[in-house]
UniProtKB/TrEMBL annotation:
The lineage of its organism: Eukaryota, Metazoa, Chordata, Craniata, Vertebrata. Keywords: Calcium, Glycoprotein, Hydrolase, Metal-binding. It holds the Pfam family Sulfatase. Residues 519-549 are annotated as: Disordered. Its cofactor is Ca(2+). The keyword Cytoplasm does not apply. This is ARSI Arylsulfatase. Residues 50-361 form the Sulfatase N-terminal domain. It comes from Orthonyx spaldingii. GO terms for molecular function: metal ion binding; sulfuric ester hydrolase activity. Belongs to the sulfatase family. PROSITE patterns: SULFATASE_1, SULFATASE_2. The gene is Arsi. It comes from the Eukaryota.
Length: 574
């Protein structure tokens, strides 16, 4: 009875006490900042291609920025956003690799074969080599291109490395998760290696330097050594604020009053990252780049609520297709914006940066076929209507099929057991298992186990596989309209069928023991030869690829349960 008392608290009490009545348009959170009328009438003109700085943070939650009402201090980000354009209808992907691949290629996951999970360190897999990347298009336009930070798009062959995919220089990690000081990464017991690279070499000499500081310092160094008369593109993919939760002590001290230890460390990391952005902005001004620059800020996915992040008041978390997993923090700051100091509700997706930035750079897109992104600069700079009306969040045929889904539930045109999600104008459809579905206010997080237990019960107790929401009217996804609007469900299912016909086979090969760091001098890095072929798995028809039923494994489920429980308990003891 004690357990069920706790499980009932999270959602019911939130509804009872009004936690979910947070005003979406409350002044000071996402409202417009007053605009000088003269600023609109005197737009700057582009005299030469602008310098482009793209900043991507890792696992930063939707709530975890000052102007979204957070208890975390982000004065630099708040100021840059207030003086630029806040993107409040901006979407990303629920996990790391998918967001990065769509940024770099301008294509949905289903069109690169990366629609399932992430690229893992020991997989012979990487961003498809036939894709022309964003930095390659900018190089064609005369840009100097540089990457600093987390790659996470595969490295099993040298051809997969950032310096072979369009970047002139690279300093950062190749895998998805490293220690902030030692740069060690373990992909299982005893499978550990060093992961910090300078170009195509291992950067052993940089060990011990906190990555957020190291990356900001590298950006400043790049700017100092380059001429502002020549266009430059710098992709800054901070490791922050992904786990492990590590920060210099002086930043943790600022949040000493926070009772939740994970939240305290996480907050310190966010503020530290904010100061790194401040240093980058200062360098742009110091070295003469700022007046002709465009700064884009984006998160890569929703926050991980078990590790201090918060997506409040949105539903869900990282790894899910609820709004908390796919709605991101985004803004553009630039003296070149015609209508500054405002909030944009134009629909924007992370694939849109490819054509938008190439167009800003006066690059050539005529020879690039099959882009899923749109040029949204007129919507951002001038307040025009976005050319985008829909977003395919994903179709993942390999993800565990929902227990209660069927072709019958999908009007005979779509197997609703398949994990998929799409948005068309104000409507959003989810099928299969969309992931953990609770609303978690930041004050509970890891210090209140009731939310966690209720989270599990909500997910496992839903005897359905189709959800429909009017996201414009219901941004928190509280009111499922799938039964009231079967006509709209069918319409969106038809759009999924359309996209599924264009999908290429899933690229998710088995891990290869040759990738072990012990065979590479103790570091993660390329291990396959140029002659090794690419390994593929999956097929073009996701609805037919999972017909065979797997035998139920009670002991496997039990092990999985205790792993989750142990992780949960350990996080409360950090």
């Amino acid at each position: 009875m004690a357990v069920y008392a706790l499980t009932g608290f999270s959602l019911v009490s939130l509804l009872s006490f009004g936690y979910l009545s947070w005003d979406w348009m409350k002044p000071g959170l996402v409202a417009d900042v007053a605009t000088d009328p003269m600023e609109k009438s005197l737009p700057p003109t582009f005299t030469r291609p602008p310098h482009i700085i793209f900043i991507l943070t890792d696992d930063q939650g939707y709530h975890d920025i000052g102007y979204h009402g957070s208890d975390i201090q982000t004065p630099t980000l708040d100021r840059l956003a207030a003086e630029g354009v806040k993107l409040e209808n901006y979407y990303i992907q629920p996990i790391c690799t998918p967001s990065r691949s769509q940024l770099i290629t301008g294509r949905y996951q289903i069109h690169t074969g990366l629609q399932h999970s992430i690229i893992r360190p020991r997989q012979p897999n990487c961003l498809p080599l036939d894709q022309v990347t964003l930095p390659q298009k900018l190089q064609e336009a005369g840009y100097s291109t540089h990457m600093v930070g987390k790659w996470h798009l595969g490295f099993y062959k040298k051809e997969c490395l950032p310096t072979r995919r369009g970047f002139d220089t690279f300093l950062g990690s190749l895998t998805g998760n490293v220690d902030y000081y030692t740069y060690d990464n373990c992909d299982g017991p005893g499978v550990c290696g060093y992961d910090l690279h300078e170009g195509e070499d291992v950067a052993w000499d940089q060990s011990g330097k906190y990555s957020t500081f190291l990356y900001a310092q590298r950006v400043s160094k790049i700017l100092a050594s380059h001429s502002p008369k020549e266009p430059i593109f710098i992709y800054v993919a901070f490791q922050a604020v992904h786990t492990p939760l590590q920060s210099p002590k002086e930043y943790i001290y600022r949040y000493r009053s926070m009772g939740n230890v994970a939240r305290r460390k996480y907050a310190a990391m966010v503020t530290c990252m904010d100061e790194a952005v401040k240093n980058i902005t200062w360098a742009l001004k110091k070295y003469g780049y700022y007046d002709n620059s465009v700064i884009v800020f984006s998160t890569d996915n929703g926050g991980q609520t078990f590790s201090g992040g918060s997506n409040w008041p949105l539903r869900g978390r990282k790894g899910t297709y609820w709004e908390g997993g796919v709605r991101g923090i985004g803004f553009v700051h630039s003296p070149l914006i015609k209508r500054k100091r405002r909030t944009s509700w134009a629909l924007v997706h992370i694939t849109d940066w490819y054509p938008t930035l190439v167009s800003l750079a006066r690059g050539n897109l005529s020879n690039v076929q099959g882009l899923d992104g749109y040029n949204v600069w007129p919507a951002i700079s001038e307040g025009k209507e976005s050319p985008r009306t829909e977003i395919l969040h994903n179709i993942d045929p390999l993800y565990n099929h929902a227990k209660y889904g069927s072709l019958e539930d999908g009007f005979g045109i779509w197997n609703t057991a398949v994990q998929a999600s799409i948005r068309v104008r104000e409507w959003k459809l989810l099928t299969g298992d969309p992931g953990y579905s609770d609303w978690i206010p930041p004050q509970t997080l890891t210090n209140f186990p009731g939310s966690w237990w209720n989270l599990e019960r909500l997910t496992n107790g839903l005897r359905k596989s189709v959800w429909l929401f009017n996201i414009t009217a219901d941004p928190y996804e509280r009111y499922d309209l799938s039964e009231q609007r079967p006509d709209m469900v069918r319409t969106l299912l038809m759009r999924l069928v359309h996209y599924n016909r264009t999908a290429i086979p899933v690229r998710y090969p088995a891990e290869n023991p040759r990738a072990h760091p012990d065979f590479n001098g103790g570091a993660w890095g390329p291990w396959a030869s140029e002659d090794d072929g690419e390994e593929w798995e999956g097929g073009r028809e996701p609805l037919k690829s999972r017909n065979k039923k797997k035998k139920k494994c009670k002991i496997c489920k039990l092990r999985s349960f205790f792993r989750k429980l142990n992780t949960r308990l350990m996080s409360n003891r950090i």
